Amino acid sequence: MKIRINGDSLRLRLSQTEVRDLVRDGIVRSACQFPQGEFLYQLAIHDADKITAEVQHSTINVYVPRPWVAGWDEDERIGLDSRESNGLYILVEKDFQCLKPRPQEDETDLFPHPQADEANHQC
What we know:
Number of domains: 1
Number of strands: 8
Helix content: 10-25%
Largest sheet: 4 strands, mixed
Strand order of the largest sheet: 1-2-8-7
Strand content: 35-45%
Radius of gyration: 16 Å
Shape: globular
């Protein structure tokens, strides 16, 4: 799972396995090791009507409504989003392979890019 924070915007991008795990197990987690300790971020299903987020200690917790996740691993929906009352915009989306291959990145578990066929025909 990738995380991007830009101002009041939080974006999580999930691989195919992570989307399946979220649908099946209700949670996915990632960590980044720093010399001073671990920074964690996780996405979990909850029983609310919108996506929410909170920070506790060195963990960002993002919660997505159960009905929003149902079937997400098998349908064409790309992203799920909402805005907190304080203005924080939260986007959870499927991570796609790049249209131009990047040899330094392993994209084998990412979703096929929806425009990949169009890009190949334009070459």
